[in-house]
Amino acid sequence: MKVAIQGIKGSNHYKALTELFDVDHVEVEECSTFQRLVSSVVTGESQKAIMAIENSIAGSILPNYRLILDYNLQITAEYYLNISHNLVALPGQELADLVQVKSHQMALHQCSYFFTDQTHIHLIEDVDTALPAQVIAQQQISGVGALVPKGTAELFNLNVIAEDVQNNSLNETRFVVIEKQANLSDDVNKATLQFEIAHESGSLARVLNLMADHHLNLSKIQSIPIPNNIWKYAFIVDVSFQNELHFQKAFKAISAISINPTCVGQYKNGKS
Ligand SMILES: O=C(O)C(=O)C[C@]1(C(=O)O)C=C[C@@H](O)C=C1
Predict the structure, then answer these.
(1) Distance from the CA of 174 to the center of ligand 1, in angstroms?
(2) Looking at residue 272, what is its pLDDT?
(3) How remote is the CA of residue 242 from the centroid of ligand 1, in Å?
(4) Structure confidence by residue, pLDDT tens digits, 89-126
(5) Which pTM was predicted?
(6) Taking Cα atoms as reference points, which of 191, 89, 98, 107 lies closest to residue 146?
(7) What is the number of the ligand 1 atom nearest to the C-alpha of 81?
């Protein structure tokens, strides 16, 4: 089986992969963008992909929701990974020597406080957290640091200048596994739904009331712009349930009063 991840070995996606799959028995496709990761599943090159969807400090990755919806993919599993960021550079380099720090956009967001006073450092977005570290090591680049997960400095023989520089020590990223086919197992207790509603008073409240009536526990509601329908939004909700039948009935009822209802996936709650 081939599994696509965003980034290379040493990135958080790679960490998530090692915790979700037996790496000795899967082939890994390292993708430089989320678009490529999705294309890999759509074309059948990879059977599954692991994709970051939200972070507890930086919030939702809306473009990734858009990709899942646009390509009609299914969320078949979720995984919450504890994220810590270490600032690394070539051995001998100190904080004052750095003029640039490169990392993934979401990682830079998660460490914004640390860099507020470091006005000599220019923050630069890169493909993932691990690639700039690999490049610094291979090309022996001075003056440039990278923000990497724990363990990645050792992978590239780099030196840790500062540990755990994220804004909050409680920092988790939620990853989802995406596939072309739905997870048909009975062993599910969470689902992601997407729907649109009429632009009229009370229409969202009616959908939310149906969820309560069917004993669904709403853990997230996210609005997302509808392309080509300017300033109109679709809603993406995560619900958990004890009885799959409750969920099926609720989905039927929600479908009757919403527009373009879609089940984006059923899976096991990663928090229980
Ligand atoms: O660059 C990495 O290490 C990634 O796996 C990407 C990513 C992300 O897409 O949010 C994953 C987890 C962290 O939140 C920061 C970056």
Answers:
(1) 10
(2) 73
(3) 31
(4) 999 999 999 999 999 999 999 999 999 999 999 999 99
(5) 0.95
(6) 89
(7) 12
Residue 173: CB within 6 Å of ligand 1?
yes
| CA 128 – ligand 1 centroid, Å | 6
Structure token digits, residue 174: 């939620």
Say yes or no: CB of residue 12 within 6 Å of ligand 1.
yes
The verdict on the CB of residue 53 being under 6 Å from ligand 1 is no
Q: Work out the end-to-end distance of the chain between its first and last CA atoms, rounded to an integer number of angstroms.
A: 27
User: Per-residue pLDDT tens for 32-54?
Assistant: 999 999 999 999 999 999 999 99
At how many degrees (to 10) do helices 34-42 and 62-70 cross?
Answer: 20
What are the φ/ψ torsions at residue 133 (nearest 5 degrees)?
-65, -40
Of all protein residues, the one whose alpha carbon is nearest to atom 10 of ligand 1 is 106
Q: How far is CA 219 from CA 208, 222, 238, 241, 247, in A?
A: 12, 10, 6, 11, 14
Residue 185 inside a domain? The answer is no
Q: Does 91 lie in the same domain as 77? A: no
Q: Is the CB of 83 under 6 A from ligand 1?
A: yes
CA 199 to ligand 1 center in whole angstroms: 35
Rounded-to-integer distance, Cα 249 and Cα 244, Å = 9
Cα–Cα distance, 93 to 89 (Å, whole number): 6
Does residue 143 sit in the same domain as residue 242? no
Say yes or no: 197 and 260 in one domain: yes
User: pLDDT tens digits for 227-260?
Assistant: 999 999 999 999 999 999 989 999 999 999 999 9
Question: Is 96 found in the same domain as 50?
Answer: no
Q: Using a 6 Å cutoff on CB, does residue 171 contact ligand 1?
A: no
